Amino acid sequence: MKDKSFNIRIYGLLIKDGKILVTDEFRLGIPMTKFPGGGLQFGEGPVDCLRREFREELNMEIKEPVHFYTTEFFQPTELLPSNRQLISIYYLVEPVDKEVVIRVTEKRFDFEYIDGAQTFRWVALSILDKEEFTFPVDRLVAGKILHMSSTPHSPSPERRRDQGDGTTTSYE
């Protein structure tokens, strides 16, 4: 019997001016659209991983992130050996430096299809399509963001900031 293990992925949801940052990547021979982030390394906490990923991918320092969602069901990995269970953790993030410049494109998959290629895009929440995301958990999270954005009495995702006492305030 093969060893069963976990693949833990940590993602940041950066929302600004009614838009969310997504990444298009080409890895393992597959073009994919997902949220910025990556794999938890042994010895790292989830927030440490998120900070490292944002430094590596975006050259960005982030403020204390706010937990948004953790996978609540069994999800096998799609690109790795089948005996791995995927656990994805999503956080709302904001940059320390509000003036940070992120190199973005407007075109999906705006790169040569070589392993490791990556670009970023801002997608307006008003046209965000959860089916554009490659992976099931990202689609679920995109749906939650859309629902939250369209609920009249719910704070928009970009305005939520958990104060630790059950209240939220704006971080704009």
Q: Could you characterize what this model shows?
A:
- With 172 residues, the protein is α+β, with helices and mostly antiparallel strands.
- It has a single domain, classed as Nucleoside Triphosphate Pyrophosphohydrolase, CATH 3.90.79.
- The chain has two helices and seven strands, in the order E-E-E-E-H-E-E-E-H.
- The chain has helices at 46-58, 136-150; strands at 5-16, 19-27, 30-34, 37-39, 66-70, 84-93, 117-124.
- Strands 1, 2, 3, 4, 5, 6 and 7 form a seven-stranded mixed β-sheet that branches.
- The termini are far apart.
- Mean pLDDT is 88; it is low at 159-172.
Per the CATH scheme, the topology name is Nucleoside Triphosphate Pyrophosphohydrolase
Mean pLDDT, as a whole number? 88
Give the termini distance in whole angstroms: 52 Å
Extended strand count: 7
Helix content: 10-25%
**Do you know the CATH architecture?**
Alpha-Beta Complex
Query: Which sequence of SSEs, written as H and E, runs from N to C?
Result: EEEEHEEEH
Main sheet makeup: 7 strands, mixed
How many DSSP helices?
A: 2
What structural class should be given to the helix and strand makeup?
alpha+beta
